[in-house]
Amino acid sequence: MIVMARQRNQIEAVEQAKVIAWAQENIARWPALAFLFHTPNGGARNAVVAMQLKAMGVRRGVPDLMLPLHTVWHFGPLETHKHGLAIEMKVVGGKMDHEQVRWCDWLVSQGWRHAVCYSAQEAIDTIAKYLQGQTTVRNGDAEGKAEPDSEGTKG
User: Fold this and answer.
1) Cα-Cα end-to-end distance for the chain
2) pLDDT per residue as tens digits for the range 51-104
3) Considering only CA atoms, which of 17, 130, 2 is closest in space to residue 64?
4) All residues at 6 or more sequence positions from 14 whose CB lies less than 8 Å from its CB, including other chains
5) CB neighbours (10 Å) of residue 154?
6) Does 154 score more than 70 pLDDT?
7) Cα distance between residue 100 and residue 153, in whole Å
8) Are 133 and 72 in contact (CB under 8 A)?
């Protein structure tokens, strides 16, 4: 079980690194990509480092990638303001845990767009569409809020 979790985390890390590399290569096209970031709130650490990070404000469940960029989306005569984009990277079949769902719900309630992405390409497409003011729906409604699955989790 621990080996499988480590393998999932490694796959997610590789996919996420591809997204960051793409972002770095596309800053000239979309300068806001310079503000795409990852908060290192996961991973194995020794007890002392874990306590230090917790004291510094690291929180469980924070999405893997965040882009704090206000956009206005137009749907015919209607417009919707989004205050940023948050992406949770998962391997295929992966589910958000309780804390991740809590963050998703909070960010959506604050006007953020939230997406769960299962590959680097899906995350790249999600970011590009966000930057272009387009919306896609995956595992949730048009606001990006995840719907509970049969196990009561979201994503």
Assistant:
1) 21
2) 888 898 888 999 999 999 998 877 778 888 899 999 999 999 999 999 999 999
3) 17
4) none
5) 22
6) no
7) 10
8) yes
CB-based burial label for 43 (10 Å; 0-12, 13-18, 19+): exposed
At 8-21, the pLDDT tens digits run 778 889 999 999 99
Lookup: tokens for 145: 């809020």
Q: What is the DSSP secondary structure assignment for residue 74, as one 8-state letter?
A: E
Cβ contact 64:12 at 8 Å: yes
What is the distance between the alpha carbons of residues 77 and 4, in angstroms, rounded to a whole number? 48
Q: DSSP assignment, residue 32?
A: G
Q: List the domains of the chain with CATH numbers.
A: 2-131 (3.40.1350.10)
- The 10 Å Cβ neighbour count of residue 94 is 15
Whole-structure pTM value: 0.79
Residue by residue, what is the 3-state secondary structure of 102-134? HHHHHHHHCCEEEEEECCHHHHHHHHHHHHCCC
Helices (H) and strands (E) in the chain, counts: 4, 5
Strands 78-82 and 112-117: unpaired
